[in-house]
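REQUEST
  id: r-88c1
  op: predict_structure
  target: Reverse transcriptase RNase H-like domain-containing protein
  payload:
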Amino acid sequence: EHLEHLKLVLEVLRREQMFAKRAKCFWAQPQVEYLGHIVSATGVKMDPRKVAVVRDWPAPQNLQELRKFLGLTNYFRKFIKQYSVLAAPLTNLTRKGAFISLESWTSECQQAFEELKRVVADDITLVFPDHSLPFLVELFSDASIYGSGAVLLQEGRPIAFTSKRFSGAETRYTTGEQELLAVIHTLKEWRCYLEGRPFTLKTDHKPLTFLQSVPTLNRRQARWMEFLARFDCVWEHIAGRINIADALSRHRCMLLS
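RESPONSE
  id: r-88c1
  status: 200
  body:
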């Protein structure tokens, strides 16, 4: 298969009269480095050199340094189960006038900074989706009053993680609306994987399972349901205690300051 792909690439280069520098060409490699990632037959993981940079990053002394740190870690957020949760105290400091001196850097910020560096250092490998396996793409989504989290799985292995903090207005939504908002966010995030193919969507909120049969919806719910109609998904209920995405949304850092 690799040789067939290589042949196709070389044919395109020849046809378009494009040239590849031989010294920069590597063939039949067990793994390759690509845009800060290590890609191999087992999946994709973060480049250890980038991980080392994050691990050794000193505590930011000003807003500019903090933004650089968050920019780097945000690039790898799909590998981090709790990214928006863990980064919440730090992202709060990026608001106008929030980080005016080192006194703004509280113990909570330092704890979030150290914890974020620790989880980045975890050796997480995301597997490639297999589009030939029907009904084996499972989406787990959970919502609490402060935010939501989800993991996209196939055969029990993670393809990607996502999480979302609710805005001030969104924290006042009903539980059902928050759960539906979490699903909408997740489907928009992963529509490239899920749109046009069947999958299972599991949630720990029972009313959401039956929402499609509710006769009367408000405008926001109707708009969301119209978007959901584009997906071929089976809704199932799971107990919150066994939802592996649960930890993403029930963390105190999700509380808006």
